[in-house]
Amino acid sequence: MDTDALTAGLLRELRTVKPYPALSLTMPTHRRAPDNAQDAVRLRNLVAEAADRLEADPSVTREVRTAIKEELDRAVTEVDPRRALDALVLLVTPDEHRIWQLPRTAPERVVLSDTYLTRNLVAAKAQSQPFWVLTVSADRAVLWSGTADAVREERTGGFPLTAPQEPPDPQREERVGDTPSTFSDEETRNFLRTVDEQLRTVLAEEPRPLYLMGLAPALALLDEVGESTKSAVGRVTKGAPAGMSAGELFKELRPALDERQQRFAAEIDGRLDEARGRRAFAGGLDEVWAAVREGRAGLVAVEEHFQQTVRVTDEHLEPVSGKAVDLADVAVREDIVDELVEAALDSGADVVFLPDGSLAEHGRIAAALRY
Hints:
Blueprint: H1 8-15, E1 22-28, H2 37-56, H3 62-78, E2 87-93, E3 96-102, E4 109-113, H4 119-128, E5 131-136, E6 140-146, E7 151-153, E8 161-162, H5 170-176, H6 186-205, E9 210-214, H7 216-225, E10 234-237, H8 246-277, E11 281-283, H9 285-293, E12 297-303, E13 310-313, E14 316-319, E15 332-333, H10 336-346, E16 350-354, E17 365-369
Parallel strand pairs: 5-9, 9-10, 12-16
Antiparallel strand pairs: 1-2, 1-4, 2-3, 5-6, 6-7, 6-8, 11-17, 12-17, 13-14, 13-15
Helix pairs in contact: 2-3, 4-10, 9-10
């Protein structure tokens, strides 16, 4: 699955307690040759490690062990190396398997627990900054799901919507003297009201920034008859033909995305400056980690590619690297940034990712505190 498929409802489902063991397997992957040649070997080794862990666990029955191995084998055969990004996550129980290919790296891990390991999914979702795009005309509305890298058509909430085709009415045309204007036609207004209602439902279930694309009269009428589009963060005043591809749409949308990203970065800088002014600011991994654990972080800003392995000592984080890393040590946390992101989101904090170098003076991560 793609990260934009990780809805709040699906995340709740993944986090539900399951009969032990639920298997989570994570590993970094590579998008291109020659680096991707190592991915298949690494995956085989992790699968073998998972099998050994299951064999060695006396609480796992033979029946359950066999079922998990079979599901894991099925998952491995379904992994498409052509769609590889920066990490692979396999989630497996005796009854199911799920495959996630993520645009954010994850460490090599095999975890047996009574819940799936979701922190890598959550962090990748937050970093991808998903958004909605609605392309609209007088007779058709299409919803697209987007991330920083691409968009794809989303078939949810009744979308795509097409207006009912009314047959021509010669008697009506004789009475009014001409065919009615498309955007003053009551059928068009009713259609766009339906679009607004469906869009409101989608935004309520999965809130994301919204971009609009369509001719100016279509966007103006949608604003007039509804409420959902008034919070749109960007608009592209251009027709969106029915055959428009995802690549073409993304190209047309790029200037609006870049403009919002600049506004967004300036807004985050302002919030962090304001926090420094009232002495409610945390900078660096150790300070931010403590603030998140205490539930005091209202905003956490992280550089996009910041990853750090640490050892937790006396409630503090000690960065470790190279030969100092002993992943068998329970105090060592290889994915502490992803763990922090998940914890921050769980506490109700806003988590944003900024370009590398944006937070260099603060140790690549900073927070504005609630108190």
